[in-house]
Every structure is written in structure tokens, then in C-alpha cells.
Amino acid sequence: MDNLGLLMDGFGSVLTPENLLYAAIGVLLGTFVGVLPGIGPAMAVALLLPVTYGLDPISAFIMFAGIYYGGMYGGSTTAILLNTPGESASVMTALEGNLMARAGRAAQALATAAIGSFIAGTIGTLLVVFFAPALASVAVEIGAPSYFALMVLAMVMVTSVLGGSPLRGFIALFLGLTIGLVGLDLNTGQPRLSFDQPLLADRIDVVVVAVGIFALGEALWVAAHLRRSPAHVIPVGRPWMSGADFKRSWGPWLRGTAYGFPFGALPAGGAEIPTFLSYITEKRLAARKGRDDFGRGAIEGVAGPEAANNASAAGTFVPLLALGLPVTATSAVMLAALQGYGIEPGPALMTDQPELVWALLASLLIGNVLLLVLNLPLAPLWAKLLRIPRPQLYAGILFFAALGAYAANLQAFDLFLLLLLGLLGLMMRRFALPVLPLILGVILGPLMEFRLREAMAISRGEVSGLWSEPLAVVIYVVVALAVVAPLVIRRVRPAPAAVAVDEGIVVEDDTEEKVR
């Protein structure tokens, strides 16, 4: 109740007409910039950071919150409409959301993303308010072996569950891990796979990889098939969610929130793992209910990962405020903004400057509400982007993809990498290799290597150190079950002449039909 009273004091500081105007401007600016392909929330906040210069801290915080949530929703919008995630956490949203858009259900996909973001963001922020100290202490106690085990679980689940061919999944994962190895070895300083190119010493930026594989790969694929298929206008569809859509979405919203917040509250947790796990969970639950629309545009595949993404984003404020530890690129930009006002996040922050902390948390709640109020009515308008003829649309995507890749490091060399990765994305579509394991390998590969070395250093080189924590043992048991259970089920139950779905290709009775 003391925390609730402090939160009310924060609302008292924030709820002024001037501050609400700043929040609305932040939401609109964040969404506008976030909608540009290849520009995620971290880049949106960084680009718009100068806009807040000259404001007092409370006004700046509420504008930060609006830009933060607006940028996240903008990244989801490009993922759904253009199959171009603005950040790695929007990869899962692109998978089903873009298929919904192509089927004339873009407005419904955008609406479930907005409502799921609101629900997950609100619940996550309230959990930060009430449980930040306890959650921070728990997060600190989780060691490197458990982190390594979590990453192994994420990789095994994604490569074995997504797609009809585990072999193709592991090939894509191997490609992603190889890309993740590029750069200097953090321990020895030796260059790896850099081909004597100094600009590769700092590794390949994840934004460049995601934009190249998704945006450029998609544009090249469309260009390669543009003359073979007649151009047609994709219908926008009915502007609002139906009762059936709400019924199918509320469960994924809550489950995604339950996945996302704990991962966000963990130092180095991030939003990638919970969004992957949320998608896998919804796919399994749909299969149990006899539905096979995953891979064709299932609304659960948008609702769950979007909720997990936003709950994780709210959870990142636990280590940021309580430990001064930014666990995502966006929270790192937020940390720089806080430090610009002379605020040093850490264990003493809530006692030294409680007014600013609770004003910031109140700003997050207000920014979340304004995101829903302003962007939900605009969902049909955003959906009409699909009516733009494909040559003009993909020309714009190529321009903003190049802009987003260049803005990541301000290096022209990244444009060359973008072209190579775009060609790789084109070949992956040609040979039906799933994209998601590759992205996961790029993101988690370096983190996995770091945690592996940390765990081995703690155990002085003993392999048994990898399962020296109870949580790690439990996770490895789950990994073993995930690998063995499908093999046992296939041996016991004869496989019917069913449909195998693999990254946009339906295979049935030795025939192939493109669904994307």
C-alpha cells in the first residue's frame, strides 16, 4: 500500500495538461519513426532524444515513455504490414502478422497487437511498482549455468518446433551462430571470421541482420516473382476485431505477459526468448484444439508474442532502476537519458530520488494508455499501407531499410553487409530454410558463448559446472524431453499423410503450394 501511495504521488506530478500533451506528442512521434522499416524502438528513442532537451525531468520522462511505447508499436506495425521487424523481438510478430495482413486481416493484427501491448505493459508496470525490490534480488541470484541452459532451451525449442524439418531448422541455426561469431574474441582479442576487415571487429549489428534477412530478402523475393504473378491489391478487411478474435486473443495476451515479465526482469534476459516461447506455446495449444492455421495467419501468433514483448519491456525497468543495469538496447538509451539529468540508477535510487522514480513509473502507465487511445483508431489507416502498389512499396522499403542499416553504426560498409544478408535471405526463401533460428543464433550466440565461458571459469574448467544449479538441471530435463518426446511419439503413433508446414511452404501429397 505504501508503493501504491507513492505511485499516486507520481500521478499527481505527471497529470497536468502540459505533460499529457508531451506524452501524446511522444506517442505520435515514436509511432511515426518506429513505423519506418528497419528503425526499432531503441533507434526511435535515440533519434528523438534531442527533442526532449530543455524540458524539466518529469516532462522529459513522460515524453520518453510516449516515444518508448510508440516506437515499440511502430516496430510491430512494420513487422505486420511489411514483414520488416524493427527489432529482433518483433520477429515472431512478423511471422503470423504479415500472413494475416496478406489475408486481408491487417487491421485485426494491428488491433490485437495494440490491445495486447496495453494489457501486458500495464500489468508489467504495476508489477514493477509492487515487486521491483524482490524481483531484483531474485534476478541477481541466477547464475551463468542457468542462463546458458535457458539459451540452449530456446535454441532447441525453436529449431525443433518451428517448421516441418528439424534439419532445415538446425542449418539455419548454424548460419546464425556463424554470423554471431564474426568479430573479436572477447577473451583473447583475436579476430574471428573478419577476413582482415577492421569494420567487422565489433560484430555485425543485429539490426543490420534483421533488416537484411527480412526487409531486403522479402523485397528481392517479390522482385524475382513480380512478373510471374499478377499484381493485386491486398484487401484491408473489416476495421475492428470480432468477438471471436477477442475470444482467441485474451488467453495469449495473459500467457504472453506471464512469459515476458520474468525474462525482462532478469539481467540480460531480453525479449527474444519469451516471444519465441510464447509463439511455440500458442502453436502447441492450437494444435491440441485441432486448429492448423499457424503458418497461415493465426491471431494467437500475434497476440502472445506482442504481449510477451511489451511485458518484457516493462520488466527491464526492474534491473534498470534497482541495479542500474540496462538489459536491452532501448533501456541502454533510457539509461543515457536518465544520466543526462544527473540521475544514476541503482539500489539507492528509490530512496534518494523517489519523486522522479515514481513520476517515471506513472509516466509509463500514462504513455501506455495514450498509445492505445491514439493508435487503436488508426489501425485501419495503417493497414491501408498495403494498398500501395508493390513496386513503389518495396522501393520505399529498400530506401528505409538502407537508412535503418546505415543509422545503426553510421558506416557505409553496413550497406554492403545489408546486400549480402539480403541475398542470403533470398536464398533461404528459395530453399525453404526458416528465418527464425538464424535470427536467434545471431542474437543468442554471443550471449551463450559469454555465459558458457563464465560458467566454465567458475567451475575451473569442469564441465559439471554447467549443471551446478538446480534451475539449470530442470531446464536440461525440459530440453531432453523436447528432443526425445517427438521421436517417441512418432515411433508409437504412425504418421498420417498430413500437412507439413515449413516457413511458408505447404507440402501435401508430394505437391507444393506457396502460401506466401
Protein described:
It is a single chain. This protein is an all-alpha fold. Helices cover 69% and strands 3% of the residues. The chain has helices at 2-14, 17-35, 41-48, 57-82, 91-102, 106-141, 144-161, 166-181, 206-225, 243-265, 272-288, 300-315, 317-323, 329-340, 349-352, 354-375, 379-383, 390-409, 413-430, 436-458, 470-492, and strands spanning 183-184, 191-192, 500-502, 505-508, 511-514. Helix 4 packs across helix 5 and helix 7 (144-161) packs across helix 11 (272-288). It is globular.
SSE topology:
Elements: H1 2-14, H2 17-35, H3 41-48, H4 57-82, H5 91-102, H6 106-141, H7 144-161, H8 166-181, E1 183-184, E2 191-192, H9 206-225, H10 243-265, H11 272-288, H12 300-315, H13 317-323, H14 329-340, H15 349-352, H16 354-375, H17 379-383, H18 390-409, H19 413-430, H20 436-458, H21 470-492, E3 500-502, E4 505-508, E5 511-514
